[in-house]
Automatic annotation (TrEMBL):
Protein name: Mobile element protein
Lineage: Bacteria, Pseudomonadati, Pseudomonadota, Betaproteobacteria, Neisseriales
Biased composition (Basic and acidic residues): 20-43
Organism (species): Snodgrassella communis
Region (Disordered): 1-43
Amino acid sequence: MTLSALDRWIGQSSKSGSFKTKDNRTPEENELIASRKELKQLN
């Protein structure tokens, strides 16, 4: 594990209390993911 990966991991845990990626997304990232899912369903 690199130092930068460990630093990012600790930072995520400090912000949200979780190590899960989905718990550490920004509102914009969540909106983009939701839009992509919706678009995929329309196709």
